[in-house]
Write a structure and sequence with these properties.
By secondary structure, this protein is of the alpha+beta class. 32% of the residues lie in helices and 29% in strands. The strands form two sheets. Strands 7, 8, 9, 10, 11, 12, 13, 14, 15 and 16 form a ten-stranded mixed sheet that branches. Helix 6 packs across helix 8. The structure holds 4'-deoxy-4'-aminopyridoxal-5'-phosphate (PMP). The site of 4'-deoxy-4'-aminopyridoxal-5'-phosphate has 14 residues, from helix 6 and strand 14.
Length: 282
């Protein structure tokens, strides 16, 4: 596997960052995860727009402009000879002697891009069976709308899910489900409408969430952006989650409580199909 690290393409085993990188010392960095489906980047515009937003919110310099970034993103995938890929891109505030305040102006940001195989079939199998989730307290900071590499609470939640034999964790703040550890959370209400937490400082605005809303509109399925409680989710006819890597994945159990029939529901299925069709169109 080949990675891009600050201007060079190197084998992943030789790819290194400095011990005084601010990403390493302060989690002072942001990232994006996007996919290449059948040789084409999917939702790239959205991911680059969110990258810019994260940089702006943290007053961080961009490592290069979009045109150059697109070239490097394509080159990493090409060098790894991948047709379907998961691409990870991280920007940090660069290298400087440890000090909480920002380094001097002009300190170059660090940029790392890696790619690995994206197994589309695995996602399909999970979507066929549906996944179970646990609920977990949302103990994250007040700006989770910024996609920072400070993911310790997310990692703890995912680990708890994993130990419980579950796929994801529904994060709960004040009784309401905000999102999951690495995906957005949705339910279907009694009328068949989709319900998901509104954007704001308490969720990450998923690119897949946005595209799923567009797919729902195409299918003439109503989308209501409002908070929903854990109890409401457990009693809902359907639940599902969205992310760049899992697309639309039906949730069939929450804390061991069966959702609907305990099988993936029709609304989530339709939405997943519509989403996949869109991704295939590119
Ligand atoms: N919420 C969190 C906390 C995430 O880490 C992710 C995945 N990056 C998402 C939601 C889903 O976002 P996207 O659809 O852009 O992958």
């Amino acid at each position: 596997r080949i990675a891009y690290v600050n201007g060079q393409y190197v084998p992943v085993s030789k790819a290194m960052v400095h011990i005084e990188d601010r990403g390493y010392q302060f989690a002072d960095g942001i990232y994006e995860v996007c996919t290449v489906v059948n040789g084409r980047y999917w939702d790239m515009e959205g991911h680059l727009a969110r990258l810019d937003r994260s940089l702006r919110e943290l007053q961080m310099d961009a490592p290069m402009d979009h045109a150059a970034l697109r070239v490097v993103m394509k080159e990493v995938v090409r060098r790894n000879r991948l047709k379907n890929a998961l691409v990870y891109m991280q920007v940090t505030r660069g290298v400087a002697p440890r000090n909480h305040a920002f380094p001097p102006e002009g300190t170059p940001p660090s940029l790392v891009i890696t790619a690995r195989r994206f197994n589309l079939n695995r996602g399909d199998a999970l979507a066929e069976s549906g996944v179970s989730v646990i609920s977990h307290p949302d103990i994250r900071w007040g700006r989770v709308d910024i996609k920072t590499v400070g993911l310790l609470p997310n990692a703890l939640a995912k680990q708890a899910a994993s130990e419980a034999g579950a796929y994801e964790a529904f994060l709960v703040r004040d009784g309401y489900v905000t999102e999951c550890s690495s995906s957005n959370a949705w339910i279907v209400d009694e009328s068949g409408a989709l319900v998901t937490h509104p954007k704001g400082n308490t969720i990450l605005g998923g690119i897949t969430r946005q595209t799923a809303i567009a797919c729902a509109e195409e299918l003439q399925i109503k989308v209501i952006e409002r908070p929903f409680t854990l109890e409401e989710a457990k009693a809902a006819p359907e639940a599902f989650l969205t992310s760049a890597t899992s697309f639309v994945t039906p949730v069939t159990a929450i804390d061991g409580v069966r959702i609907g029939s305990g099988k993936p529901g029709p609304v989530a299925r339709r939405l997943r199909e519509a989403y996949k069709a869109r991704a295939a169109r590119g």
